[in-house]
Write a structure and sequence with these properties.
Structural class: alpha/beta
Largest sheet: 4 strands, mixed
CATH architecture: 3-Layer(aba) Sandwich
Distance between the termini: 13 Å
Strand order of the largest sheet: 2-1-5-6
CATH topology: Glutaredoxin
Order of helices and strands: EHEHEHHHHEEEH
Number of domains: 1
Radius of gyration: 15 Å
Helix content: 25-40%
Number of strands: 6
Number of helices: 7
Length: 153
């Protein structure tokens, strides 16, 4: 069986959400001895745009969604959560300082954008693509969901 091809579409360099998704996927693949290749690509790359176009969408971030729909998002609060994340135990042991700045509160603060991303025509980062199929978008999946998302039919 060929290796699973996993692509994480995110910001370059990764934001906390994109970095944590990468760390979670890498940890899952390692712990479960999954034969896979993992690539992190920028949302503005031609490959990411090509993936989004198959769904009739463009790639973008929460900021793109908010701007496209004239949404009022408290970006100071969002950046505050990144600069001073609430203390917590992370879902994966990672030394990636950017990933360690993620918190459920950060995802929650951007949920309004995630919920309306498709309305804006945007495939919102972070995006998990498995063998060419978009499996998850817009936030960091739970560990339980990640196993399901990485399992091939």
């Amino acid at each position: 069986m060929a290796p699973i091809e996993i692509i994480i579409i995110g910001t370059k360099p990764p934001c906390p959400r994109c970095a944590l998704m990468g760390a979670l996927v890498t940890d899952y693949v390692r712990r479960n001895a999954v034969d896979a290749t993992i690539n992190h690509i920028g949302f503005d790359s031609s490959e990411a745009r090509s993936i989004a176009s198959t769904l009739g969408l463009e790639t973008g971030t929460a900021k793109h969604v908010a701007a496209g729909l004239n949404m009022n998002v408290d970006w100071n609060a969002v950046y505050g959560l990144i600069a001073n994340p609430p203390p917590r135990v992370h879902p994966v042991d990672t030394t990636d300082e950017t990933a360690r700045k993620w918190s459920p509160e950060l995802d929650e603060s951007l949920k309004c954008c995630q919920d309306r991303a498709r309305e804006a025509g945007i495939l919102m980062t972070p995006v998990l693509v498995v063998n060419g199929e978009v499996r998850h978008e817009g936030d960091v999946p739970s560990l339980e969901d990640l196993g399901r998302l990485l399992t091939l039919p």
